[in-house]
Design goal:
Keywords: 4Fe-4S, Electron transport, Iron, Iron-sulfur, Membrane, Metal-binding, Transmembrane, Transmembrane helix, Transport. This protein has 468 residues and is α+β, with helices and mostly antiparallel strands. The chain has helices spanning 3-11, 33-52, 84-105, 108-112, 115-131, 134-142, 147-173, 178-186, 192-212, 214-220, 223-230, 242-245, 268-271, 292-304, 316-321, 325-332, 335-356; strands at 56-57, 60-61, 63-66, 71-74, 77-79, 237-240, 311-314, 361-367, 374-375, 381-391, 397-404, 410-412, 416-419, 423-433, 441-451, 454-467. It is built from 17 helices and 16 strands. Strand 4 and strand 5 (77-79) form a beta hairpin. Helix 5 runs antiparallel to helix 7 and helix 7 crosses helix 9 (192-212). The longest helix has 27 residues, at 147-173. The relative contact order is 0.09.
Length: 468
């Protein structure tokens, strides 16, 4: 190549790929203290998810977010679209709880209770059961495609698919009554939306937990990106102690190991990591805090006769200042944690108080626009209103309706209405008032709707009375 050609090549811009080719991770399963906790959380969350669908309350599904009826049933509570404020409060409480947990113990939620982690763990258990341990899975993937490989892979995908479809069915069962959903499946009369969501949710469960796995945590989850904002030097995280572990090296029989650190460079902490990182490189956003590296490192330390804790839950300040466990716990109670805790308790107490004192009655008052005002035979002026009464309790109620705000105003006709349990009842009310009881035009009045036999269920709503 001539000098001119070399110069031309050098002047051309270099192409740099911004995409990293995925390297499949074969995480080795390790048993230990933190793995036992993870198993317990996986079992607990799935008992709640799959089992909660079958609980009954007052002859109905205890947990049902009925979209067709536009009512949410949560045990003895019935919520309507007008109760969206409680959903907002729940989201606020969840956010502050996550902030608090993250500030105290890092990505503890990610490592033990996040749905992505939980379902990835379930799919990996199936994979380990069907294909074998890590070495067997690597060997199987490298083997040529034959009948044995097709049988093993087919069995795994079949079990994955069944679990995914059952997961999708369970989710839809929280929005459509499960017994109705089962009957529709058995009679092949499943609606298009139920079918769509069962397969979509099941498909994404299989995609995320079976195939993408750590890529969801690394590239899709926003929590991994902003978690550092909630960390501080006293946040508990998975840490490697370089002062104790370095310089790392393999311990050979008869060799001088006096200049080596405690890390035997076995690489097991990388092998068991579900995101494939090396914790010895320091804190990384890919770390989900599952502590699998802690369990395996402790086992290695036991085998080589060294103290545990080379990889452990600790804090940045604890590593620098060599704090003991008691001092670490003392540093957890700090202004940031106190503020988060105070806000969380305050919001929870206020929300609980309002929920306990929530009146199981809602009323919308709609004026009859076809007849704004009319004159009755006795000379009084009548206005017609339609009351939409929402009885949010699960027992039928009879309500007494009264009106005030204008001298002589009264209900003309029936002033009581029966409302079915957890239902919406429309009731036309005629209000009559003397023509001299107010000014011409709009006059404010108030309706009082009270449950007969239960004076605590009383609601007062404002309306306007038109005098010609």
């Amino acid at each position: 190549m001539s000098h001119a050609d070399r110069q031309k090549t050098a002047d051309q811009p270099a192409e740099v790929s911004l995409y990293e080719k995925r390297r499949k991770i074969y995480a080795k399963h390790v048993r230990g203290f933190f793995d036992n906790w993870r198993i317990a959380l996986v079992v607990l969350t799935q008992i709640l998810f799959y089992g909660g669908l079958w609980l009954e309350w007052n002859g109905r599904q205890a947990l049902l977010f009925h979209l067709v009826e536009r009512k949410f049933y949560i045990f003895g509570l019935v919520f309507w679209p007008q109760d969206v404020i409680y959903l907002a409060i729940l989201l606020i409480i969840s956010a502050y709880a996550l902030f608090l947990v993250t500030a105290v113990a890092g990505r503890l939620f990610c490592g033990y209770a996040c749905p992505q982690t939980v379902y990835t763990q379930l799919f990996m258990w199936i994979e380990n059961w069907v294909e074998g341990d890590r070495n067997a899975r690597i060997k199987l993937d490298k083997a040529p495609l034959d009948a044995r490989k097709l049988r093993i892979k087919g069995t795994k995908f079949l079990l994955w698919g069944l679990l995914s479809l059952w997961t999708g069915f369970t989710l839809v069962g929280y929005f459509t009554p499960v017994h109705e959903l089962i009957n529709n499946v058995l009679t092949n009369s499943l609606g298009p939306w139920e079918t769509f969501w069962i397969f979509v949710y099941g498909g994404f469960t299989m995609l995320f937990a079976g195939f993408m796995r750590e890529q969801v945590c690394k590239y899709m989850c926003p929590y991994a990106r902003f978690q550092s904002v909630m960390f501080d030097p006293d946040t508990l995280i998975i840490t490697y102690d370089p002062e104790r572990g370095e310089p790392r090296g393999i311990r050979k029989k008869g060799a001088d190991t006096s200049k080596l650190g405690d890390c035997v460079d076995c690489g097991q902490c990388v092998v068991v990591c579900p995101t494939g990182i090396d914790i010895r490189d320091g804190l990384q956003y890919e770390c989900i805090g599952c502590a699998a590296c802690v369990d395996v490192c402790d086992q290695v330390m036991d085998k080589v006769g060294l103290p545990r804790g080379l990889v452990r839950y600790s804090t940045e300040n604890a590593m620098k200042e060599k704090l003991d466990h008691k001092s670490i716990l003392a540093h957890i109670v700090r202004p940031r944690i106190l503020v988060y805790t105070a806000i969380l308790i305050l919001i929870t107490v206020i929300a609980g108080w309002f929920l306990m004192h929530r009146i199981p009655l809602k009323v919308d008052i709609i004026r009859d626009r076809s007849t704004l005002a009319r004159e009755a035979d006795d000379g009084s002026i009548e206005n017609v209103f339609m009351l939409q009464i929402m009885n949010t309790s699960e027992s039928p109620q009879r309500y007494k309706i009264t009106v005030d705000g204008l001298d002589g105003a009264k209900i003309a006709g029936d002033d009581s209405v029966d409302a079915k349990a957890a239902g919406l009842t429309s009731f036309n009310v005629v209000v009559a008032a003397p023509p001299e009881s107010g000014k011409r035009g709009s006059n404010p009045i108030h309706f009082t709707i009270a449950a007969e036999g239960n004076p605590e269920i009383t609601l007062r709503e404002k309306a306007s009375f038109l005098l010609p």
